[in-house]
Amino acid sequence: MESSLRVVAITNCPAGIAHTYMVAEALEQKARQLGHTIRVETQGSSGVENRLSDAEIAAADYVILATGRGISNDDRQRFVGKKVYEIPISQALKNIDTIFPHLATQALTFTADNSVRLGKQEVVQGSVMSHLMAGVSAALPFVIGGGILVAIANMLVQMGLPYTDMAKGAPSFTWVVESIGYLGFTFMIPIMGAYIASSIADKPAFAPAFLVCYLANDKGLLGTQSGAGFLGAVVLGLAVGYFVLWFRKVRLGKALQPLLGSMLIPFVTLLLFGVLTYYLVGPFMSDVMSGLLHILNTIPPSMKLGAAFLVGAMLAFDMGGPINKTAWFFCFSLLEKQIYDWYAIVGVVALMPPMAAGIATYLAPKLFTAQEKSAASSAIVVGATVATEPAIPYALAAPLPMITANTLSGGITGMLVIAFGIKRLAPGLGIFDPLIGLMSPVGSFYLVLAVGLALNISLIILLKGFWLKRKTATQQENEHGHRTA
């Protein structure tokens, strides 16, 4: 083995208190004794500390994983292609003398098995948007599960089953199912705030953010007309997260440091932000949400259609980019307030760019390359289940006509969704949403989707045909100019 090695390591244990830090210190001491350099990332009760950078991992000769609860798939992905030595943390201390000598013979090269990221990273890691999307990702299962249960309850009532709440005696089965479903909508807000904060500052921020976000949405406790909603979860999640991130930098010495994340940070943060939420943040954000809801409920029809055009156009413009995410976030945030028509725009417009591109490829094959033709069927099928990625290659190949067609048709379809009174309870399965009760009215959904697709396809064929003719004419002019020169 080489005389001097560059090593990186991760230590964690189930409790995240004693062994995590003891093994980290032991590895550092042993590395110094042997003349090696080492950086140890601890995943303890205070969350991730001394996080390894990509550059440090890339430069390392070996990776040591001394763990008691394993590492996440995201962490495994960081070490793909590296020589990794794994040891249970319970064995690390008593075998500390043998770890470094065994690196050359027992370290194995990590592969991408079970750790491949799905899709591309569309937001910068560590940015505010990445923290918001972490919160949204955590909230999605709550609203999906809850929305489907509410839809099932409504379908059962329409089929003739009785609906009786607790105020009228023994509750009916439909009421029980609906009530369980609405729990998903209730807890999606504190879960979102907790995961926003946790994305910023790890585990110590989770509990305080969850509790203050729940408080901010409890109208009974606050005595307000409305809860703080998604806006409150965003504000409180970010505030708690960055406060805890600063708090974690406090140094208390080896004896007390493990207590910082498990006791002091949750206690101080909950006390501070709990009081602030009760007296200031909760009532203020409640007033803001009440004002927003009042505007949405009293907006004149003409202005509402204009806003729907804007939302639809934004959703279709960059297919998962920041403009799309802004519009999606606005529509999704209203579900908790039981406002379902804006999210219906997402349910229709998100289907259109990939489906329209795929169908247009079959209707006007001369306008598309062989590669685009081979991907057409996949674009249609995947697009029908609300995944916009298949539309991106078509837009990159001809940005001006494709994005223009998508944006215009998306905006007009957004207006049609509002005009036809379509509602969507929760994220689902795209074109199958009406069949499982998540989108209604059923006929209006399929009619508006058909009209939107027809418009989108027509604009793609028209605009791309014109764009290709202009492109060909320009190339011929350039070639003619070169010959005459």
TrEMBL record:
PROSITE patterns for this protein: PTS_EIIB_TYPE_2 (PS51099), PTS_EIIC_TYPE_2 (PS51104)
Any single Gene Ontology cellular-component annotation: plasma membrane
Top enzyme category: transferase
Keyword Heme in record: no
Domain PTS EIIB type-2 stretches: 7-105
InterPro entries: Bacterial_PTS_Sugar_Transport, PTS_EIIB-like_sf, PTS_EIIB_2, PTS_EIIB_2/3, PTS_EIIC, PTS_EIIC_2, PTS_IIB_fruc, PTS_IIC_fruc
GO-annotated biological processes: phosphoenolpyruvate-dependent sugar phosphotransferase system
Protein name from the UniProt record: protein-N(pi)-phosphohistidine--D-fructose phosphotransferase
Protein species of origin: Scandinavium lactucae
Lineage summary: Bacteria, Pseudomonadati, Pseudomonadota, Gammaproteobacteria, Enterobacterales
